[in-house]
Amino acid sequence: QVQLVESGGGVVQAGGSLRLSCAASGRTFSNYVMGWFRQALGKEREFVAAMYWSGGSANYADSVKGRFTISRDNAKNTVSLQMNSLKPEDTAVYYCAASLRGRYIGAYTGEADFGSWGQGTQVTVSS
Q1: What average pLDDT does range 27-45 have in this prediction?
Q2: Do β-strands 121-126 and 10-13 pair in parallel, antiparallel, or remain unpaired?
């Protein structure tokens, strides 16, 4: 059973940076797609970024391109989301997600594309 545990959330001023981590366990993830989503208060959960655990291409939402970077650390079995130049509109609960790989990376942008989820970590960006 896949288990995902996020950490690294917090409060940061606009323009600042945060690094979220997702500790993954329960499977060998080499054949998985890992993703990050976020959900702001009163809004639907939205796609942020995704990558193949094995490396290669990543996909980002337009709203975070050039500011956020998804990466993975094989030795630590973690997936990270480096968030720079944060804006108040980035305030949300951020969720890590996992799915078995089967399509091109650009296809993994919806909640239904991922079968395993973490519990979320709160990110608050103050203006």
Answers
A1: 95
A2: parallel
